[in-house]
Amino acid sequence: MELGGFDIDAPRWDQGTFMGRLWHFFSITDCRTALLPDARLDEAKALVESCRAGTLPPGTTKEQLYYAKKLYDSAFHPDTGDRMNLIGRMSFQVPGGMAITGFMLQFYRTVPAVVFWQWVNQSFNALVNYTNRNAASPITPKQIGVAYVTATSTALATAVGLNLYTKRAPPLVARWVPFAAVAAANCVNIPMMRQQEILNGIAITDENGNRLGHSQKAAVKGITQVVISRVTMAAPGMIILPIIMQRLEKYRFMQRITFLHGPLQVMMVGVFLVFMVPAACSLFPQRCSMAVSKLEPELRDAIVSQHGDAVRYVYFNKGL
Asked: Record's InterPro entries (predicted)?
């Protein structure tokens, strides 16, 4: 098959629709790609770069290119092209998230257990947030440390405080404490980990990718969408699963296998995350847009004076 002129960066599915983005993220969050060795990922990157350069190896098929791009998107940062650490990749969200969330939901009754699993979860989240940031806005080790400590403290304070407050509340309310802590921490963790984007602005471009400057308002919009996506990602498993478990635990057979409740919750969380990770990532376009009229006055005026009405929208990578 002749593949001359094949644009490997053109979306395989329409990114302007939710379903198109859903198929895209089902592809790149496929947890099977997390099992592949670095050498295989590097081969995929080399093939993608060869395609971009117009020097494809003879006999390369379109399906091979699509698979190489899937591996590339799952493992390499869209801004830098560097291979991301395994735990921080979205393709690791299902195995990593199901284990941590399952145990948070299982061990919610005692303060030491709450503290430990919230700390584990926030450590995981901090790494994911750092890995999937907009890499055009660097962050210092000190800022990473402050973000980590702040988010972890928020999660622990929320979880322990609500855990003590709900001692006399209905059992189901206590089971929802982990979600409240996770949601609160996400509202702190993500903005803190990406504070440089808020302070200095995020790189914006025109429709053709030409750099136009940096915008703080664009950064706030992108980060807000990421926070909403992350909370949505966790919500079904952490809200619905406690209801399911509370009803199941009334049955005698479940009371005989209490030692399996933890593994059972881990597996059930996994079922939720298989669908919710790509669905939550698909809520908003990865290449976010913003009207020039909504930008900071100085930046808006600079764009209008240089390009007139030719540029009405700016674009930026919102991160994941």
From this structure: Mtc
User: Is the CB of residue 189 less than 8 Å from the CB of residue 122?
Assistant: yes
Q: How confident is the model at residue 2 (pLDDT cuts 50, 70, 90)?
A: very low
Q: At residue 143, what is the residue type?
A: Q
Sign of CA dihedral 309, 313, 314, 315: negative
Residue 316 has which token pair? 């930026």
Give the whole-angstrom CA distance, residue 168 versus residue 106: 19
pLDDT in tens, 63-94: 888 999 999 988 998 778 888 888 888 889 88
CB count in 10 Å sphere of residue 99: 17
**Pairing outcome for strands 211-215 and 202-205:** antiparallel
Task: Say how far residue 139 (Cα) sits from the centre of its chain.
Answer: 18
Closest CA to 234 of 173, 181, 193, 196: 181
Does the pLDDT at position 98 exceed 80? yes
- Model confidence over 219-263: pLDDT tens digits? 999 999 999 998 998 888 888 988 888 888 888 888 888 878 878
DSSP-assigned beta bridge partners for residue 83:
76
DSSP per residue, 64-119: HHHHHHHHHHHHB-TTT-PBPPTTTSGGGHHHHHHHHHHHHHHS-SSHHHHHHHHH
Q: Which amino acid is at 271?
A: V
pLDDT of 170-221, one tens digit each? 877 878 888 888 888 788 878 877 888 888 888 888 888 888 889 999 999 9
State the Cα torsion 223-198-196-227 to the nearest 10°.
Answer: -20
Chain-wide mean pLDDT for the chain? 85
Question: What are the distances in angstroms from CA 271 to CA 140, 164, 237, 278, 290?
Answer: 37, 30, 9, 12, 35
Name the residue with tokens 């390009």.
307
pTM of the model: 0.80
Distance CA 269, CA 273 (A): 6
For residue 99 the two structure tokens come to: 């284990």
Dist CA 163 CA 165 (whole Å):
5
